[in-house]
């Protein structure tokens, strides 16, 4: 359905989505290229940032086919198996992003609380192992979802309220017993978002304690400033998730457009904002961008 209740102004909505996709894809590709080519960024923090950018590209590309076909070409159909594949990748990339944000918070914890051991603790091999571990956890957690959905009969219609396939939306049109799907879905959310957010809060509590133990106010501000980009990225990711969950649990009578709008914010805003946040708040990223656009001119003979 795209956005329920909005039949007019689809051209403007299509334009907005195209702008969001363009910013997300170009921004995250730029971060990846910058980290790859700039030797000064070959550090654990920026390797994790490149993982985040790569994952955000996955989120954008997962939703792109059906969103563009719905709003740009007015084609509102998707095959059932294709819908299951899209659902799997959307949720997998979302769970992976949560894990990457946790890894980035641990990176900041080691950098601030134990800086002398930073290079020995966060080696390249360990960063690679962490990334593979996060991806494996997300993939294995989401692997049963398509099979749990495929076993269900669908007799309440075949209309989804979003312009992409999500597990809760599919459950609304499924018949039969969906308790297993709901229970496993709750387990998956707690195992990923719940565990990750708890450890992110714990790491920042320890970081704050370490920072407050520093006597110099200038050093305190300097240490906290290194965390600002990550804090903004965490808020951009978790605030929409909390809003979607709150509306789903406590405002069931909300118009469908509210649920759809919040889901769009949850899927489209973080991939768009993350490159902007790190470009604005991280000095090394800014320096790399300026270096790229202001290359030294060759000396005249």
TrEMBL record:
Alphabetical GO biological process terms: cellular response to lipid
Domain G-protein coupled receptors family 1 profile, first and last residues per copy: 27-278
Pfam families reported for this sequence: 7tm_4 (PF13853)
PROSITE patterns (UniProt xref): G_PROTEIN_RECEP_F1_1 (PS00237), G_PROTEIN_RECEP_F1_2 (PS50262)
TM ranges: 12-37, 57-76, 88-106, 126-149, 197-215, 227-251, 257-277
CDD domains assigned: 7tmA_OR51-like
Sorted UniProt keywords: Cell membrane, G-protein coupled receptor, Membrane, Olfaction, Receptor, Sensory transduction, Transducer, Transmembrane, Transmembrane helix
Source organism, top-level taxon: Eukaryota
Principal location listed in the UniProt entry: membrane
Localization per record: Cell membrane; Membrane
Alphabetized GO MF terms: G protein-coupled receptor activity; olfactory receptor activity
A GO CC annotation given for this chain: plasma membrane
InterPro entries in the record: GPCR_Rhodpsn (IPR000276), GPCR_Rhodpsn_7TM (IPR017452), Olfact_rcpt (IPR000725), OR51/52/56-like (IPR050402)
Membrane disposition: Multi-pass membrane protein
Family: Belongs to the G-protein coupled receptor 1 family.
Protein name from the UniProt record: Olfactory receptor
């Amino acid at each position: 359905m795209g956005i329920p209740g909005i039949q007019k102004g689809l051209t403007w909505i299509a334009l907005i989505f195209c702008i969001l996709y363009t910013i997300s894809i170009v921004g995250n590709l730029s971060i990846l290229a910058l980290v790859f080519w700039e030797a000064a960024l070959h550090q654990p923090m920026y390797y994790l940032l490149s993982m985040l950018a790569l994952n955000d590209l996955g989120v954008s590309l997962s939703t792109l086919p059906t969103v563009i076909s719905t709003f740009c070409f007015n084609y509102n159909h998707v095959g059932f198996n294709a819908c299951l594949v899209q659902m799997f990748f959307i949720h997998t990339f979302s769970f992976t992003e949560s894990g990457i944000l946790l890894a980035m918070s641990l990176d900041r914890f080691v950098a601030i609380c134990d800086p002398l051991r930073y290079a020995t603790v966060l080696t390249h091999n360990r960063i690679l192992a962490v990334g593979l571990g996060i991806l494996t956890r997300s993939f294995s957690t989401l692997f049963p979802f398509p099979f749990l959905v495929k076993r269900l009969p669908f007799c309440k219609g075949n209309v989804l309220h979003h312009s992409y396939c999500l597990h809760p939306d599919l459950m609304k049109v499924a018949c039969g017993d969906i308790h297993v799907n709901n229970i496993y879905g709750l387990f998956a959310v707690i195992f990923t978002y719940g565990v990750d957010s708890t450890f992110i809060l714990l790491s920042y509590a320890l970081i704050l304690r370490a920072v407050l133990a520093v006597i110099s106010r200038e050093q305190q501000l300097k240490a906290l400033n290194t965390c600002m980009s990550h804090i903004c990225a965490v808020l951009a990711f978790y605030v929409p998730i909390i809003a979607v969950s709150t509306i789903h649990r406590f405002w069931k009578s909300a118009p469908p457009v509210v649920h759809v709008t919040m889901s769009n914010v949850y899927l489209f805003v973080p991939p768009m904002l993350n490159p902007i946040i790190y470009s604005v708040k991280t000095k090394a990223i800014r320096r790399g961008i300026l270096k790229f656009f202001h290359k030294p001119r060759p000396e005249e003979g």
